[in-house]
Write a structure and sequence with these properties.
8-stranded parallel beta sheet; alpha/beta; 334 residues; Rossmann fold; single chain; 8-stranded mixed beta sheet; ornithine cyclodeaminase, domain 1; globular
């Protein structure tokens, strides 16, 4: 196929082309790129457009240049959120990554981002457990079992064998079905709990991955030695952040673009001086990971577009090698 055409990689194809391990390895390598200073953000780093209450429609556009690959890409997505229903993690929202050749500006590929987003959102946080996780965790707690909770479990299953997995969600029937399904898949006891506190207390690793804008979990519930992974908004009470022994995040810049994080910082509840480091600091060895078994660690991620671009380029390259995807006509002079 001509190099002057554009490869479209569908959602179905991405499921075959990108494994959980691929996602974990790629996210870790991108953190190393950040440590080397070889990632370039767009300016501004994020562009947003909100329609207001009439349509409850939200556009986000982000871009990055990864010098080490090299790869240039732009990520764009559109979702609905009226305060009650949010489809940001579902297949019925718009999600694409556009890749181009950084040497020529020529379009290379359009990649459906639904699977990439879902697995990156969790892999980018879970991979930090290699440095920040407890030594031999036996109990996992999942607060929320939607896209984030399910993909967290997929990632964690590559790293640990738990004795018990505790879960909770808004609807009893949903969590009971999830427990039955994953107990069978993993051969591990999956236990439904009615409250978030029951999930968090006593767990060695806890993942908060809901779509709520409310405070979900509280710091006193987290036992000594546990690691809490916060995947969105206010999964951990802002008042408790400074009480953890170590707090690591994916990017101070991108988190400061989130209103909940920015409000927490501006109110003085948490400061950059209290931050142990960004995840790339720990991955590269510039900051120490867990140093004691009794340390309580908070890992918080909002998502960085560099990882999205790297995953899209991985999928594009693999699709080309395997002869997958659909070729679209590029612009040509008639």
């Amino acid at each position: 196929m001509s190099n002057e055409e554009v490869l479209f990689v569908s959602y179905k194809d991405t499921l075959e082309l990108l494994s959980v391990k691929d996602a974990l390895d790629t996210c870790e390598e991108v953190y190393r790129m950040h440590a080397r200073g070889s990632v370039q953000w767009s300016d501004p780093p994020s562009f947003k457009m909100d329609s207001g209450p009439t349509f409850n429609n939200h556009w986000h556009v982000k871009a990055a240049f990864l010098h080490d690959i090299p790869a240039t890409g732009c990520r764009l997505y559109n979702y609905y959120d009226d305060g009650n229903y949010n489809n940001v993690g579902y297949l019925d929202c718009c999600r694409y990554i556009v890749l181009s050749d950084p040497k020529t500006g020529q379009a290379l590929s359009i990649v459906d981002e639904h699977w990439l987003y879902g697995i990156r959102s969790t892999a980018a946080a879970v991979v930090a457990l290699k440095w920040m996780g407890p030594r031999a965790p036996k109990v996992l707690g999942l607060v929320g079992i939607g896209t984030m909770g399910t993909n967290s479990l997929r990632c964690l299953d590559t790293m640990y064998k738990f004795d018990e997995i505790r879960i909770t969600s808004r609807r009893r029937e949903t969590r009971e079905a999830f427990a039955a399904d994953w107990s069978k898949k993993l051969g591990t006891r999956v236990v439904c709990k009615d409250t978030i506190e029951e999930v968090v207390r006593g767990a060695d690793i806890i993942v908060g991955g809901t779509t709520s804008s409310e405070i979900i979990s509280r710091e006193p519930w987290v036992k000594p030695g546990a690691t809490f992974i916060s995947l969105a908004r206010r999964e951990m009470d802002p008042a408790g952040w400074a009480k953890f022994d170590k707090v690591v995040i994916d990017s101070w810049v991108f988190n400061m673009l989130q209103k909940e994080f920015k409000k927490m910082v501006e109110s003085g509840q948490f400061t950059r001086e209290q931050l142990h480091g960004e995840i790339h600091d720990v991955v590269a060895g510039a900051k120490k990971g867990r140093e004691r078994d009794d340390e309580r660690v908070l890992v918080h991620t909002t998502g960085i577009v560099s990882q999205d671009i790297a995953l899209a380029h991985f999928v594009y390259a693999k699709a080309r090698a395997k002869g997958m995807g659909t070729w679209l006509p590029a612009a040509h002079m008639p």
